[in-house]
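Example pasted here:
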Amino acid sequence: MQETIKNRNRNTNSNSQQNVTQASFALSQLLLLRSRKRWGIMYMLATVSGLFIPIGGIFVIVGGGHDVAASILTTLLKTAPLPAATFLIITGMYILNDLVDADLDRANGKKRPIPSGQVTKANALLFVIMTNAAALILVLISFNLASIIIVLILIGIGLMYSAPKICLKDRFVLKTASIAVASMLCLMLGSSYAFNSSDIRQPITNYNQNYGSFNITPIATFAALMSGSIIFITSLLNDLGDVEGDKAFGRRTIPVVIGKKNTVILTILIAATMIVISWSIYGALTTNLGLTLPICVSVVACIAILNMSKILKHLDNSEYIRKQHKKSLSLHLMLQSALVIGSLFIWLR
């Protein structure tokens, strides 16, 4: 079966590429960027929301008599490269995945620049190298050890996800887990400016002095866990639409192993767990957290539960599932907005 699909797609690709004009190098880079920019933006938003977790310290510092302009300028210099670095890394790694998965994408009916023949594999590889190199340079100029370490781990996960000998994307659970961990790291990258450049185990001294008893680590970890959870849910939704192709190519995705219905039930349980964790954190850190953050996260989780419940009625409709996955960006937007609003209310209470 697997060999039959591969042969059919080779013939289809051979015929289709005869009618496709390969793009120039500059145009190919633009096509690749456009094809995956929405996911780069999605992960970038996690980094942006991460910026707001410790940002209240600026207002506390200003209230303590420090120079307003100096405080804001210092923070901007530390944070400006971080969202851009996330966007470049994630977009590049999605293209690397497309490069390795060209045959599988044809089997699943996905019309992307590489499998369609618009972009050569050599130009795609150059795109991956340039985006990751640019991201690393952006973070290096921030002179923050925590940021550099997180970015190196992100790049490592991206490579291991698609690298043939390791290929996390072919391994049960590890595929989706690695994507979720990447999202968590993107959010932590946003908060990494609040850690000392020489010792990542300790927050900046000024932050400790002005926050008093407040510790940003539990809140940053909670926010990262929520971001990873919503990515886990939507990644499973993507796999639900690719079950037949994944089976043919020997991929052990969660829907392939446990079935479509059980996968949807799993996503609902994960969303429900987000609610439980939110209120558990509220109970444990009631003097610091406030009500806004758990309420906002719970609302997003409830919307995710409702959306996934609807999919239970369309388990055999791959096109419907793929359309729902494309719409899932709104869930990420809502969650990151919830984390920003909740974090700001911590400081404005």
Residues 24-348 form one domain.
